[in-house]
Amino acid sequence: IYCNPMDSEQSNPLSEFYLACRSGDLNKVEYLLSRLSLYDLNQFESNESTALHAAAFFGHIDIVRLLMAHGGFLTTLRNRYNLTPAEESSDTIRQLLLLPDIIQLRFQCTDSMTTTLFTPISAISDTDKQSLITTTNEPIAQRPDWIDAYDNAQRIALENHEYMRKWLTKIPFTHIINMIKTDYLNQMNTILTEDNLTVIQEYITLANDEDDARYLVYAYTTPTSFFKQINIDLAQRGMSIIIEKLTIASSTKIYFIIIGSDFRFENNISKKYRDDEPPIGFGQYLFAAVIINHSSIDHWRYTGVTYRGMNISNDELNQYICDARILTRSFLSTSKRIDTAFLYLQYNNPILRPVLYVYRVTQRHTSLTISDLSAVQGEDEVLIIPFVAFRVVKVDIDCFYVSDRCRVSVIFLDEVTINEKSKLNS
User: Fold this and answer.
1) Fewer C-beta within 10 Å: the chain N or C terminus?
2) Predicted structure pTM score
3) Are 129 and 136 in contact (CB under 8 A)?
4) Backbone dihedral region for residue 332 (phi beyond 0: left; psi -120 to 50: alpha; all else: beta)
5) How far apart, in Å, do the first and last CA atoms of the chain sit?
6) What does the pLDDT look like over 87-102, one tens digit per residue?
7) Helix, strand and coil in the chain, % to nearest 5
C-alpha cells in the first residue's frame, strides 16, 4: 500500500527547521541552528525524512554547507525510501556529505576496527569482576590491578600538567628526545616489528633534528602498535573507572570517574631527579609532555565540540551520572565528525551498548586537531591529551534514534575549566 508523505505532513506538521531547510531559507536556518539540540538536528519528521535530507534533495547547497560546517548531522540516516541525504542529492552536494573513501573502506571489514585509534576493548576481569575499559587486545589474565581510589583527583591532574610543563622549560629539547629514544623506545623491540620500530625512531630523530613536535604526532598516528602501547603505559598499564564521593563546602556531593591509577609526578619523580633533568623510566610521559607543551604544536590546538563512539557495558554506562568528573589518563581520540564516531558503534552486541560521547573542549591547551598530521586524515581527529577533566552534563539513555532497531545512548561532557577546578580544590 502506497502512503502519500503529504498525508502525514498534514496530520503532523513539519518542524520550522525542516521547512527552512527544504525551502532554502538560509537566514532562518542559521538563526535556528544555535537553538536546536543534537536530537533536533537529526529528527525524523512526520514524513520520515530529516532536515538534511530536505536540503540535499532540493539542491540547497548553501544550506548543506552551513549544516555540515555547524556539525552534529549524521549523514548516514535513511529516510522512508531507504536513502541517505547523499544518495538523493546532486553530485556536488554528495561530495559534501560523503565520508572520504579511505574511511569508508576501513569499515567494510569488522576486523579492521580492532586496529583503529578510536576503538576500545571492553571486558570483565576474572579476578574482581570489575568492569574495565582498555585500548589493547592484551589477554585479561595478563592485566595487572586496574582499580585505584584516591582523593583530590583534579588537583593531581593540575600538578602533573605543571610538572610536565617544567620539563619543556628547564630541560634542553635534545635531552628529552634522547631519553625518549634510549630509555623508552628502544625497549619496544619486542612489541613493534623491526620495520615499524625503525619508522617510529626516524620520526623521533626528525623531531630532534628540526626541533618540531609534529613528528611525534606523526609517530603516534602511524598505523603501528606504538600508539596502543604508549597509551597503556600512560595509563599505568591500563585504564580503570572508579567512583568516589567528595563533599565540598556546600555539602554538595561531586562524583568522580577516574581513568587511571594514583600517579603523581611530585611523589614519583621529584625525590629522585631534579626538575632540570629528564627522569629515567618515564619516557611515555616525556613523549606526552612534548606533544602537550611544545610551541610547534600551537597551530593545531582546538576548542569546540568533538565526538567519540564506544560500546560499553550497562555497569559502565550506569557510572556516568550527572555532575560526575571524568579525568583522562592517556590520549583520547575523538572526531569533529559525528559520522566518524558512529562508524565505531556496533548495534548487534548483546552485552555492550552503543554510546556516543559528546565532548565540549573549552581550553586550547587540552586538545589538538590533527587531521592534517594523521596517517588517516579523513577522520577529522581531535586528540584530547592526558590529565583533562570533564564534567558529565547529561546522560540520555537510548535517545538517539538511528533506525527502528538501533538507538544510541548519548553522554554530554563539558571540560572543567581552571576556575571550576580551583573552586573544588579550595
Assistant:
1) N
2) 0.77
3) no
4) beta
5) 67
6) 999 999 998 888 655 4
7) 45, 20, 35
> Is 3.90.176.10 the CATH number for 153-425?
yes
CA atoms within 13 Å, Cβ hemisphere of 307: 22
In this structure, what C-alpha cell is assigned to residue 162? Answer: 605543571
Once rounded to an integer, what is the mean pLDDT over residues 255-266? 48
**Residue pointed to by grid coordinates 558512529:** 342
CA–CA separation, 237 vs 143, rounded Å? Answer: 7
C-alpha cell at position 375:
596517517
| Cα atoms found within 13 Å of the Cα of residue 167, Cβ hemisphere only | 33
Grid cell for residue 165: 610543563
List, by residue range, all CATH 1.25.40.20 domains of the chain: 5-98
Per-residue CA distances from 237 to 27, 133, 153, 259 (Å): 52, 12, 19, 12
The distance from CA 214 to its chain's CA centroid, rounded to whole angstroms, is 20
* Structure confidence by residue, pLDDT tens digits, 115-171: 333 333 332 233 333 332 333 333 333 322 222 223 455 676 777 788 888 889 999
Please give the DSSP secondary-structure letter assigned to residue 190: G
DSSP string, 203-260: HHHHHHHHT-THHHHHHHHSSSSHHHHHHHHHTTSSEEEEEEEEE-TT--EEEEEEES
Gap between the Cα atoms of 391 and 320, Å rounded: 10
Q: Give ranges for CATH 3.90.176.10 in the chain.
A: 153-425
H or E stretch covering 413: strand 406-415
CA-derived radius of gyration, the chain: 23
Across 18-54, b (16+ Cβ under 10 Å) vs e yields: bbbbbebbeeebeebbeebebeebbbbbbbebbbbbb
CATH class of 5-98: mainly alpha
